[in-house]
Amino acid sequence: MIISRKLNSVPFLIALFCVMSFGITSCNNKPKMEDSKEVAEDKNDAKMNGMKNEADAQFLVNVAEINQEEISLGKLAEEKGSITDVKELGKMMVEAHTKAMTDLSTLAMSKSISLPEVKTDDVNDAYKEMSTKSGKKFDLAYCKKMVNGHKDAISKFEKASNDAVDPDIKKMAANMLPALHKHLEMADMCMKKCEAIN
User: Fold this and answer.
1) pTM of model > 0.85
2) Are 130 and 100 contacting, i.e. CB atoms less than 8 angstroms apart?
3) CA 190 to chain centre
């Protein structure tokens, strides 16, 4: 009898409701996953601790993000491109940057530098933005992104080929420049073709 009276009491029911509500809301409020680029940067900061080659580590993290974006958007171009040139440009980017990513991972591992393990937030955002486009609009937007992206990449690689502390990283940066210039040239040609069609 005492137990049933307690269960029927208003304060008990209010307390029970509060506990259940807290449990439900805490289940729905999952913490946002940290950006994989930030995770890699934090790991490298802890390892380098202000050493001269901290900029080298940051360069490799940036290169990993570049490769991720080229692969991700290249696959999208193969799927959504409305002309053969765009599909072929996408396929070439996927193949070239997949190989570059494999080589980069090997180099980073040999230098104990952490890279983003999954696609970064910026890569996911770029993919989402591009996936909303279709037809000629997609073709032109993709080619423009490749032109601008490769101009930015060339700038980063030129700086590293001159300023990197680690000789292997400096060599990798210098060796990648001809391929990046070729990619830029191909993307520019594809963009001009898309502009002519539009």
Assistant:
1) no
2) no
3) 23
